[in-house]
Amino acid sequence: MKKLIEKIIQTKNPTVVGLDPTLDYIPQYLKQKYFEEYGYTLKGAAKAYYAFNKKIINAICDIVPAVKPQCAYYEALGWQGMKTLAKTIQYARSKGMYVITDGKRNDIGSTMQAYATAHLGQISVDGVQTPAFGADALTVNGYLGTDGISPLLSVMNEDQGIFVLVKTSNPSSGELQDQKIGENSVYAVMGDMCEKWGEGSIDPYGYSQVGAVVGATYPQQLGELRRRLPHTFFLVPGYGAQGGGAKDVAGAFDENGLGGIVNSSRAILTAWKKEGSDGVDFAETARREALRMKEDIISVIAPIKG
Ligand SMILES: O=C(O)c1cc(=O)[nH]c(=O)n1[C@@H]1O[C@H](COP(=O)(O)O)[C@@H](O)[C@H]1O
Q1: Where are the domains of the chain?
Q2: With 196 labelled, which of 51, 176, 229, 278 sits at a CA distance of 20 to 30 A?
Q3: pLDDT digits (tens, 9 = 90+) for 241-274
Q4: Helix, strand, coil proportions of the chain in percent (round to 5)?
Q5: CA atoms of 187 and 39, how far apart (whole Å)
Q6: Which of 104, 167, 196, 274 is the catalytic position?
Q7: Three-class secondary structure of residue 165 per DSSP
C-alpha cells in the first residue's frame, strides 16, 4: 500500500471520502441545471452526479488522500452511471487522489480475470493496452478462495492494491463472519488468508498490497485483527453515518499512526443538509466535515510518520 501510505503521510490524514452519490444528496440548484439541459433522464442524473463529484473532489483533494466511489450508486443509473464512475475515477486521479473503487468483486478465476482487467489492469484492444476504469485499488470478496484473488495479484502494479472483506460493518456481519472454524472465527481465517496473499508484496512501511476491510462498528475485532495481521492495511468503513466514532477506529492503527484508512461517505456528502442550507456551499461544507473527521481521528492515534 506504498502509494496510499505516502499520500496519507503527505496529507497527515488517514481518511477516505466515499463518493456514493444519490439524487437526494445533490442540491437542487445543481440538479436543476442538468435536468434543464438533458431532461429528467438517466443522462441528466449521471451528469449531475459527475458535477457533484467534481466539486467534492476539488474541495478536498489538498487535504484528503483518497476517495472511494462505490460502484452500486453508479450502476443504478445504467451505462450513463458507469460512464460517470469512469470519469470520476479519472478526475480524482488527475487531482492527485488515490482512488479505491468499491466493487466488492469476486468470481471464479476466469471471470475474476475480467474484473481485474476492468478495474486495475489494462484491456488489450487489438494489441493496444488501455485502462478501462483504471483505479488504484479495488474492494473484493475473498470467499471463493485463492483462485478468485490470484488474477488481481498478477494484474496489479506495485502502486495498486486490493481490500478484501474480512469483518464487515453491517449489523448482520456476525451471522457468518463470527462463526468458528476450529478455534478461529471466520473473519480471522479470512484475515490470515489476506496476510498470505500479501506475503510477496510487503512495502517499506511493512504493509502488503493486500488489505482488509474491517468495520468501525466492531472496535474489538478491529484491535484483535490489527494485532493478528501485522502486514495487512485496513480500510475501515462505518465511521459517521453507521455510528462509528474516533475511539472505535483507533485500534486499526499502529505505533506510526499508519495501518488504516477510515471511510466516511454520507456524513460528508450530506453535511450541507445538517446545516439546513440550500446546498449552494455543499462542497465547502464537505471540506469542513472532512477536516473535522481528520482532526477527530488523528487525536486518538499515534502521530503519523513515515
Ligand atoms: O467495502 C466497503 O467499503 C464497505 C464494507 C463494509 O463492511 N461496510 C461498508 O459500509 N462499506 C462501504 O462503505 C461506505 C459506507 O458509507 P457511509 O455509511 O455512508 O459512510 C459504503 O460505500 C459501503 O458500501
Answers
A1: 2-298
A2: 176
A3: 999 999 999 999 999 999 999 999 999 999 999 8
A4: 50, 20, 35
A5: 47
A6: 104
A7: strand
